[in-house]
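Lecture notes, continued. The same structure-token format from the folding unit now serves as the input rather than the output. Read the line below as a description of shape only.
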């Protein structure tokens, strides 16, 4: 498989066919509980990107000879250490810190996300490191895009506004609650999978 095809496969898998949030249904708690707007989605996406990709890259050098249980513990420890400068960065400014604190415990909760604790062992670290890093990057990008779109849709429906501008003559405040978040996430994920099925059908029809 040449470099271009590997890049396209990684891009398609990480962002579309196995999108961590919409297709695979993992790491849903931060999205349903704290991703209530585009801005909160951006905060969660930034934390997720820094912690997850850096941790995966660093832990790819951990020897496979170490017992599986200790490797998972080590991954979590590394993620915790990576999170420290991320936390300090978001607490460095008044506006940024307010947005960061608004997502509460769900920012540090990303330290134990399944891309670090599970997918690394079952998929990423079974691949050659260059391709593994590309694939991990696209998984991260896929989750980030899912957070941003979900946060934007949720904020739009729950407040009727876009970037503070009133657009809808009505709002659905229940979507800002935890219950509403899970319901909306299920609906958006179903729509995303339906969209993928349409795309897959279009690909099959091509000669």
């Amino acid at each position: 498989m040449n470099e271009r095809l590997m890049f396209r496969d990684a891009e398609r898998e990480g962002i579309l066919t196995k999108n961590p949030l919409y297709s695979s249904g993992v790491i849903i708690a931060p999205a349903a509980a704290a991703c209530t707007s585009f801005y909160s989605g951006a905060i969660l996406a930034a934390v997720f990107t820094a912690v997850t990709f850096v941790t995966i890259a660093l832990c790819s050098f951990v020897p496979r000879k170490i017992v599986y249980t200790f490797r998972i513990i080590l991954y979590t420890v590394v993620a915790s250490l990576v999170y420290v400068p991320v936390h300090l960065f978001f607490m460095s400014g008044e506006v940024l810190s307010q947005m960061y604190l608004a997502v509460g415990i769900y920012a540090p909760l990303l330290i134990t996300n399944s891309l670090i604790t599970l997918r690394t062992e079952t998929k990423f670290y079974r691949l050659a490191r260059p391709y593994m890093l590309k694939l991990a990057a696209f998984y991260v990008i896929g989750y980030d895009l899912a957070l941003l779109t979900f946060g934007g849709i949720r904020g739009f429906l729950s407040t009727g506004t876009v970037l503070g501008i009133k657009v809808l003559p009505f709002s659905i405040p229940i979507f800002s609650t935890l219950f509403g978040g899970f319901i909306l996430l299920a609906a958006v994920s179903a729509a995303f999978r339906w969209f993928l099925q349409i795309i897959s059908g279009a690909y099959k029809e091509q000669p």
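Point for the exam: The radius of gyration is 18 Å.
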